Amino acid sequence: MVQTAFLGDVVLTAPLLEVLAARHGPVDVVTTPAAAALLETHPAVRRVWRYDKKGREAGLAGLRRLAATLRAEGYSRVVLPHRSWRSAALAVWAGIPERIGFADAPARLTYTHRVERPHGGHEVERLLALAGGAESGERGAGGTAPPVRLGLTDEDRAAAERWLAEAGIASGFVALAPGSIWGTKRWPGYGELAARLVAGGRQVVVVGGADDARLAEEVVAAGNGERGAGSGRIASAAGRLPLRASAALIARAEVLVTNDSAPLHLATATGTRIVAIFGPTVPAFGFGPRGPLDRVIEHPDLDCRPCSPHGPARCPLGHHRCMREVGVEVVLEAVGGSKVQGRRPKEAPPRTTGPRPLAFDLRPSTFDFHSMPHPYVIGIDLGGTNIVAGAVRADGGKLVALRSEPTRAERGAEKVVRRIVAMAKAVRSELRREAPGAELLGVGIGAPGPLDTARGVVLLTPNLGWVDMPLRDLVAEGTGLPAELDNDANCAVLGEWWQGAARGARHAIGITIGTGIGGGLILDGKLYHGASDVAGEIGHTTIDTEGRRCKCGNYGCLEAYASGPAIAMRAVEALGADGASALPAYVGGDLSRITAQTVYQAAHDGDELAREVVRETAKILGAGVGNLINIFNPEVVVICGGVTLAGERLFQPLEREVARRAFRPAVQACRIVPGELTGSAGVYGAARVFLDRQG
């Protein structure tokens, strides 16, 4: 197995290792130096190969050296849970003939066996799909996955006991894990929490790695107070114990309070009760706690979360409310006061028997991995109002250098193209600072359509006023990079399917609502373009044959009623007919400044006219969505764009209208959800378009 992802991801791979070992005997694993210590003593593991991808073996040369070593071992099969180019390249260069990985991985073309990644569920269950059909004994009671377990030794437990004795801490303490490599995942309330716990007579241990030591000392200082009143009741173990001993220490805690980071998964493995604080990410991603006594704390009322698959270094909107507004009181309540109720029963360590482990071997591939140690793609989302650009890592696991600028279409097509090229160059410059040595593969562009994707031409876009614009080639020429073009709505839906709300679905529909209304179709796991690249033009389906004139020239289009400008226009028209509304006060009496966001805010504040506009919008969208559900029978419909700011005032009546209009079996099989990749879905999708076509 090759698993070189983050430490928490490696922990969650343990049940897959146990299933493989039960079939074939203990497994050899390639992993990072940080994770190697966890796996070296695991009963399901025979041998650990350390791959220092950021140090001694960084870059292409280091990868080739390790591949040569693995080739000499003659391995015949490899399982690749980490969906990365680097892991795939290692398997190919090592000459392993049987390569098993997920069908949605960017490097899937290099796999000999592609496994569909299950939709929903915990990451533990998803990873087990790589083991193929489950045999008896491989799953726990009730058909659940085997528990996550570590190979802790008596020496590890003794080291933890010695440290606790020296610190004067008894078992049953509260463990705090304030760190995370992702800045926005860090809850800022740990210092106050520590002080409150200590003042209440609890003993506290702050845990983490060496990188967390400074933060841990700040939490300890806050717990001690200005006069050192908490001395003897709080201590930091961050960076002071080896990894397995740290896990053994967590095992002695009554409860662990943690962010969405590696200690959460260590506590899952040791059976310690967990209070997990989620901010920019959500447990629905599949990485939350699993125990019946565990608690998740998250902000209930933010449309901007989740903002990324991992949590960015800085809040994209600058407010970090998802963490700042989580109060200490709610965390204290979740921690509780009982030292008995907080323990989960420990599982006995696994025993594995069987023949020698699988021999893992690698055949050459025609795929070109040269100069791709850290590949990225620039994704560009061109809209009628704004242009958004960023660099997406080829495995979808990271987005950097995200930026947005006004489109200013009224200044002419040439200046818009220049702005796109300038933004791509700025992203490339920032990528060099953020990820030194990263390889930039090319540019993916999402633009309003209809398009001729084969030629890279925008055929017609009413919101920009373009006709037969060779956008792909102009961007490629301006940036000096290969480029690919697809419909902007297709890109947004593809992004949500790859890394967002529709992740794992085989059949999904996306509707993007902004300056216009677009759509995209994922059918049987593939983006559907139709015979002439115009499939998914949902905004230009007719809902009223005698209705409003649309910018496309037709009458009664969905876009003419439910796009952002159309919502604002209907609100202004309602003001003229009635006038009993506070809407004008939101824009200083200038009705030309009313936007859809103004209407949503007024509706949220209780303005009845605005609420009626939102209800009418929901009814119109419900009719359109109901038609789509009847035609395509999807598993999920994702609605993206500013319209989601209306929240439940939009989604509840929309769902009622869909239920009224669509066939019941189709409605029951389908979820209607807001997009998760706020502001970046089109960037992710544009990058994925490039990877799919150039990969």
What do the pLDDT scores average to? 84
| Gap from first CA to last CA | 23 Å
Widest beta sheet: strand line-up: 8-7-6-9-10-11
Q: How many helical elements? A: 24
In short:
This protein has 695 residues and is an alpha/beta fold. Helices cover 36% and strands 18% of the residues.
Question: What topology emerges from the helices and strands here?
Answer:
Blueprint: H1 7-12, H2 14-24, E1 27-31, H3 33-40, E2 45-50, H4 59-73, E3 77-80, H5 85-93, E4 98-102, E5 113-115, H6 123-128, H7 154-167, E6 174-177, H8 190-199, E7 204-206, H9 213-224, E8 234-236, H10 243-251, E9 255-259, H11 262-270, E10 273-278, E11 295-298, H12 321-324, H13 328-335, E12 375-382, E13 386-393, E14 399-406, H14 413-434, E15 439-447, E16 451-452, E17 457-461, E18 466-469, H15 471-479, E19 483-487, H16 488-499, E20 508-513, E21 517-523, E22 526-527, H17 559-562, H18 564-577, H19 583-586, H20 596-604, H21 608-632, E23 636-641, H22 648-661, H23 664-668, E24 671-674, H24 681-694
